[in-house]
Design a protein that fits this description.
CATH superfamily: Winged helix-like DNA-binding domain superfamily/Winged helix DNA-binding domain
Number of domains: 1
Order of helices and strands: EEHHHH
Strand order of the largest sheet: 1-2
Helix content: 55-70%
Structural class: alpha+beta
Largest sheet: 2 strands, antiparallel
Distance between the termini: 23 Å
Strand content: 5-15%
Length: 97
């Protein structure tokens, strides 16, 4: 996405100074940093069950019922693990932002 920076020069206040700049590089850096942060948070900040449930649900696209059937637990247990993992990840990412 291209943006145009407009400012008034100090020498000639009636003159406008424009400069084109591209924000794609800064956005890519922010996205890469957020991905690294989420990976670290998932690796270090979640219990093994939360980690398994959240990766199966979000990354592998599995339904909570199928995860529950595989682990032989109630689907509400999987829902609770995912909700707690999401809350924990929100807290961790909010701390670093």
């Amino acid at each position: 996405m291209r943006h145009k920076l407009v400012s008034i020069t100090e020498k000639n206040s009636p003159m406008l100074y424009t400069e084109d700049f591209d924000t794609a590089e800064t956005n890519d850096n922010k996205i890469a940093e957020m991905k690294r942060l989420l990976y670290d948070a998932i690796s270090d900040g979640l219990t093994p069950m939360q980690k398994y449930c959240i990766t199966e649900y979000y990354l592998n696209g599995r339904q909570m019922k199928s995860i529950a059937a595989e682990l032989r637990v109630n689907p509400s247990t999987i829902t609770r693990h995912i909700q707690r993992a999401e809350n924990r990840l929100r807290k961790i990412t909010k701390y670093y932002n």
